[in-house]
Amino acid sequence: MKKLNIFLLGGTKDSINIIQHIKNNYESYILTTTTTEYGSKLAIEGGSDDTIAKPLLKEDIINILKEKSFDVLIDATHPFASHITQTSVSVAKLLKIPYIRFERPTTTFENIDCSNIHYVNSFEDAGKLISEKFNQGNVLHFAGANTMEDVLKNVPLEKFYPRILKVEKSLKKCEDLGIKKDHIIPMNGAASKEENIKLINNLNASVMITKESGKIGGVTEKIQAANETSIAVIMIQRPKIKELNKKNIVSNLDELDKKIKSYF
Asked: Where residue 190 falls among pLDDT bands split at 50, 70, 90?
């Protein structure tokens, strides 16, 4: 197989695993895009040859792919980053470049009590449900900085505690929304069940918000902690992306290998 030039849309733990796997098994050049310097640092440490650490517009992606003659576009962005997935599908189609979507499997929650989980389709709906049914205690937001604004349309600031990466972009978003510094919970990777329980108890939380982000996102540990402390979980369901062709989706590294080899 020839040396592969790979354009990787990253910013997730999945993308780091992909970088390491490809570098161990293929002669390759990998350019990884992330939206933050922190994500870029992790990609370089994982073995990516180069990175771009900023959000990219459709035109940016087109220009980069044309300039360096990439062989394949691998989209390993977060399951909830639907906009970039829609964009990458259309770009790959436009440029006639092979496209692979690496999508972590949904969580099955086997042997876990799911009676405390309330499913909604959006973060604004999550805020509405909390204001109507779970407004007694504080709210733990375990769903990233970019989703806070929609929740806060219906949840008071004084009850809102987000767990976020302490990077400049996220902290600025908190500041812009009026979230006090002592309400910000620093995050370093997925938390354990015990860490989640401690937070729930210390902050007198009555509800947590999370995404259906799969096992790698620590969602199981969140639900277990909620069950042990008898609080509600508002779970935002994954967006359905109609542009995605199922045959282009892989969910593990073995499937990724098969897909790459089918192209080359």
From this structure: confident
